[in-house]
C-alpha cells in the first residue's frame, strides 16, 4: 500500500452501513459487519480476497417488519452488529434480523464466500431486541454478554443487560429516569479495581437527557459479579451507580460553554491495567453554538467520584444536594466477595437497606472533571463536528507522545498532537487532515498500532478505508520541513523525511517534537536547501491576472511574500490589487511594474526559510495578441466575414521576441518532460513560432 494516501475498499456485493466490529491480532483478521453481510479481511495482506458471508434476514420476517410500518429507510434487513470470539475455532455473531435479532456461531475458517442459511441461526432473548443501538458489547470469557441497548420495538425501554453464560440474566431498573433517561450508549469496558478479581467492574459511557436541563454525559459503573437482589431489585443490578462527565471551556467573557453530547470514548491502556486513560469526544447540544472538544479523564478521578457523596433531592425547591444521612453497609456500589466485603459471596446477601438505597440514589453528587479542568482539544466556529477518536502512543527521540486521530462528520480524519508550551498552557498542533470519504458521513475509526504496519481503519455508512498512521513523505525533502512538522512518527535520516524507528542510527536521525527547532537539529542542511532552491520563471500578460503558487508543508507556518526589483525587496502588500490564499497569491490586474522576483517566505517557530522564488515576466498586450494570431486558413475565413485585422507580428521589438522565445522554450521543455518532443507538438504552434522569428528578422 502507498502510505501517502488513504485507500478506500469497494466490494462486489451491494451493501451499506459498514462497522468495524472486531480486530483479531492473533489471527490477523479484521471483521466487518454491514447490511446482510459479514466480511473478514486479511490484515497481513489487505489485497487478498476477503472472506464473505451473505446473511440476509428471512423473507417472511422482512414482510412482517414492513407490515409494522418500518422499512422506509431500509431498516427491514439483517444488520450485523456483533462479532466476538467465542473460542479458538468459533465466533459468536448477532444481527438485527429485521427487528427480530438472530445470533449464531461461525467457524473462523469459513470459505471465501458463503451464503448463510438463516435457519441455522437462533433467535435471542428480549434483552437484545434492538441491536441498532448496540454500544460496544463485551463478551466475557465466562460466556456472559454485556450490552447497553433498547429492548422494545419502539426503543422506549433502554437498559444495561447481562445475558447468556453461567451467571443469571440481569438488567437495569425499568422506566426510572433516575437510573437511565433516554440514554444513547457509546462505549463500555471492564476495568479492574484491585488485584482481587471479584472487584472487577464494568464501566458504561453514554449520553442521556438530564433531569434538570438538556443533554448530559454519564459514566456508570457496576460490579461484574452482580446477581441482583433477593427481595428488591430481583434480576436487577444492585451495584449500579452513575455520575456526570463535565467537558467545558470558559470564554473571555466569563461564560462557560459546555460540550455535553458524548460522541465517542477511547480507553488508552497503561502498564497498570487498573489505571487506563479515558478520552472522550464531545459536541455542543444546541444549534446556536457549534463546537467539539476532546476531554481526558483519569481513572483515579472517576473512582474518587464514585467513592464520594451521593446526590439527593431535598428542600421545597427539590434541588440536588449532598446526601447527609446514614450510608448503609455494604457501601452501595461495592462488589460482593471483594476487598471490602470478603464475607459476602453474592449481592443476594446484601441488606434490604443497601438495595433500597441504591434504587433511590444511583447518582453521585460530584461530577467528573477532566485532567487540568479543561479540554485537551477544542474546535469552535467550524463547519464540522468530531465523531470518533483513536489514540496512539508513539516513542520519539525526545520522549513518548500521544497522537490523536479524530474523525469528523465531513468524512475526514485529523491527526493532532498536544504539547506542553509552558507549565500552565498546552499547544495543540494539527499535523495533517486526510479525506477518507468524499461524502459527509459519520466516521468510526479503529486500529491496533502495535500490529500490522501501523494502519488505521475508518468505517462509515459509505464504506471502509485504510490509511497509514504516518505519511512522512508529504513533509518534503528538507531537514527543516521534517523537523518543523513535529510528527513523532517521522525523522530526518540525512536524505529524506522518513518513518522513525528506534533501530535507526542515532547519529543520522534528526527529530525535535517538543520544540521543532531546525536551527539546532538541521545545521548544515538548511543552507544546502536554500542553494538548491530553483528560481521559477512565470509569464503574465499585461491587463490579465496571474497566480503565484506557494503551499506550505506545515499548517502551522505563516506565509509572507516579498517583491524584489532592482536589488531591493519589500513586502507585497497592495490592498485591492492582491488576493492572498493558503495556496499562494493572486495578482488581479498585471502591469509592467509587476515584473520582478517574488519570494515566498515561511515562518514557523521563529525559523524563516524560502519556499519558492518566482521570476515574473510581463508580456505586452500586443505580444499576447500576436501569439494568438490565426493561421492562413483562419485569416482567409476572417477576411471573408470582414473581421478587423489583428496586429501583425512585425510590430514586435527585439527584446520582446526574446521573451516570447523563452516562453515557448519553457513551454516545450514542460511538454518534453511529459514525454513529448518538439516534433510531436501541433504543427500550428510550430508555424506561429516560425512566423514570429521571420518578423523579428532572425
TrEMBL record:
InterPro entries: Ig-like_dom (IPR007110), Ig-like_dom_sf (IPR036179), Ig-like_fold (IPR013783), Ig_sub (IPR003599), Ig_sub2 (IPR003598), PSI (IPR016201), Semap_dom (IPR001627), Semap_dom_sf (IPR036352)
Domain Sema, residue spans: 1-469
GO function terms (MF aspect): chemorepellent activity; semaphorin receptor binding
Region (Disordered) location: 629-650, 675-698
A Pfam family recorded for this sequence: Sema
Any Gene Ontology CC annotation: extracellular region
Keywords: Disulfide bond, Glycoprotein, Immunoglobulin domain, Secreted, Signal
Matches recorded under SMART domains: IG, IGc2, PSI, Sema
GO biological process: axon guidance; neural crest cell migration; positive regulation of cell migration; semaphorin-plexin signaling pathway
Domain Ig-like: 542-615
Protein name: Semaphorin-3F-like
The organism's taxonomic lineage, starting at the top: Eukaryota, Metazoa, Chordata, Craniata, Vertebrata
